[in-house]
Amino acid sequence: MLEICKSLLIEAVVIFRKWFLLWIVLGLVMVAGAIALHPYDVTISNRCLETYHEIARRIADEFSMWGSYRTGSLIICATILIAGLAFRRRTWQTAALACLLSVSLAGLEADVPKSLLGRARPCSGLHDGFYGPSLEYKYQSFPSGHATTSSATAVALVVALPPVGVPALVGTVGVMWSRVYLGVHYPTDVWVGGWIGALNGLVFGLAARRLSAKAGGKPAT
Asked: Is 119 helix (H, G, I), strand (E, B) or coil?
């Protein structure tokens, strides 16, 4: 498995360098969208609070649980990896490890600005703004970690293992909705988090496809 991870990292670097301009363009799309959406953050969050319903809250809680790195992404990756080992499917193993690398790297990329910028969460009771470096929960709004990890997981699997990735992608939409509905993130937070995760997922998903193609999709021996 370590050899597969090493090969995935090498392929990911090759893909990133080959399509560097594309990643720049997609990054600019993310920034432009965030700038356009930001003025509506407070209005949308307040509207969610006004439409609060207990049943909807419970559904949102379930989506948020599966959007977490520990209770969602790691379980999905582990399940696919175990199945790949059990059925000797190298393609599944590669997809699972690509997903794990994608979500782990994306999570780190989201955690750094989240701690440095210190945006107050909608539920904090504080005026919307960036309060500077902080590890306190109420200042951990931007970007959304759940949106990042769920998106990284889904996109990597959509590219590397579509039958699993498609339903995971649908679930990601639910995760993003849940974070805004529960008042723990603004729309801009989930927008940026989703893009961070998607870009990582795309790179590692393509890396997994290239690696599987080179191996001929043969069962692991």
From this structure: strand
3-state secondary structure (DSSP) of residue 67: helix
- Do 67 and 143 meet the contact criterion of CB atoms below 8 Å apart? no
Encoded tokens for 191: 């927008």
Classify residue 221 as exposed, middle or buried by CB count within 10 Å of its CB (0-12, 13-18, 19+): exposed
Q: 219 φ, ψ to 5°?
A: -60, 150
Q: In 3D, which of 217, 216, 152, 214 has the Cα closest to residue 11?
A: 214
Look up residue 201 and give its two tokens: 């997922």
DSSP 69-103: IIIIIHHHHHHHHHHHHHTTBHHHHHHHHHHHHHH
Residue 36: which residues within 8 A CB-CB, separation 6 or more? none
**Rounded distance, CA 142 to CA 191, Å?**
10
The predicted structure's pLDDT at residue 50: 82
Kindly state the tokens that stand for 168.
Answer: 């995971």
Domains of the chain: 2-215 (1.20.144)
Backbone angles phi, psi at 106, to 5 degrees: -60, -40
Q: Is 218 left (phi over 0), alpha (psi -120 to 50) or beta?
A: beta
pLDDT averaged over every residue in the chain: 93
In the chain, % of residues over pLDDT 70: 98
What digits encode the pLDDT tens for the residues 98-135? Answer: 999 999 999 999 999 999 999 999 999 899 999 999 99
